[in-house]
Here is the input.
Amino acid sequence: MEQLLRPLVWTDYRLAVLFTVMFPIVLLILSFIKKSEAVTKLLIIYWRVASLLMITVYLMIPAWPIGFLSGLAARILIPISLWFWVDLNDEIKDLPKSILKLLFTSWRWAMTIYCILGVILNLSTGFISCAFSSNVTTITKCRVWLEAPWGYKAMIHADSRPGFLGFLGMVGLVVYIVYLGYFVFIRLGKQGRTALEQ
Here is the structure.
């Protein structure tokens, strides 16, 4: 099982860097250059929601089980954030044909499919069971998912203690949950599925 899981997990992490970081940065730069307000607004919303992925990395560095839950939540929330806004969807649909529109639309569909497949992968490999394990570092299938965050720590935060980085992730998660709660229970009721007035 581990021999099959490791390449699958590392492929997932590589695709995550490509789809969740590289492409959106290029698209955001293009949307600023082309002055496409709807695409820019949707990408800013995307970055707010996708910040949960970075929070997840920091939670997984000290092998805190909650990181597995936040990772799954991110894969569910990201496609919702890309398609939720009625006004932005209409504006993007009405944009004239351009390379930006083609690239953005292709990325949005690819990102949606990637996240759905990611949720299926997470559920079928026992990823979510790691969220309820008392010591995830002793379970092979959980350790495989922790290897990339540990590699990130070795490259970027070599001198930092895992517990401190996990604390930063936990602070980020609390702020994220508070903001999400504010959006769901207050802002959504006032503005509905309209984004441009925010």
In short: The mean pLDDT is 91. The first helix runs from residue 2 to 33.
